[in-house]
Design brief:
Strands 1-2-3 form a 3-stranded antiparallel sheet. Helix 1 runs antiparallel to helix 2 and helix 1 runs antiparallel to helix 3. The longest helix is centred in the middle third of the chain and has 65 residues. It has about 140 residues and is mainly alpha-helical. Helices cover about 75% and strands about 10% of the residues. The model has no long low-confidence stretch (mean pLDDT about 80).
């Protein structure tokens, strides 16, 4: 390829020779085509990264939800057991010990509810929304 500049207008041209064929293209068009190809490639690479991060975020949120549900369920079971023992003990004349078990049941139930209330996935959700928007933008570039 040769690069020529028009003496009249100053436009840069690229001359491509292939056997008996000669093609003349403006240099700016060639740069624009190369830039578009690089932009598409960069968008495709970003899509792979974003998809991986999105999967990881969904997995992280699912793991957090499973952990919180498991912990809440365990504490609820402890509360039910403590309540049952408290009622049995109080019914058999050991009301002081039964009362202690009922208080433990209340505390276990309260902590189970607080675990459910403490879950905050807003940072994960915000990043997922951001990634979805980035993916949409990169798909538009990659498909253009």
């Amino acid at each position: 390829m040769e690069r020529l500049t028009c003496a009249y207008c100053g436009t840069e041209m690229m001359v491509e020779r292939r056997g008996d064929d000669v093609a003349v293209r403006e240099f700016a068009d060639m740069l624009r085509a190369a830039h578009d190809g690089a932009s598409k490639h960069a968008a495709e690479m970003a899509l792979v990264r974003y998809a991986k991060e999105l999967r990881e975020l969904h997995d992280k949120r699912a793991a957090e939800e499973y952990r919180a549900n498991r912990e809440t369920g365990l504490r609820a079971v402890y509360a039910i057991i403590a309540c049952g023992l408290g009622l049995i003990l109080a019914g058999n004349g050991l009301w002081e010990i039964g009362l202690v078990f009922l208080l433990v049941a209340l505390l276990a139930a309260r902590s189970a509810w607080s675990i459910a209330d403490q879950r905050d996935d807003s940072d994960i959700d915000a990043r997922i929304v951001e990634l979805m928007q980035l993916i949409k933008n990169k798909e538009r570039i990659a498909n253009s």
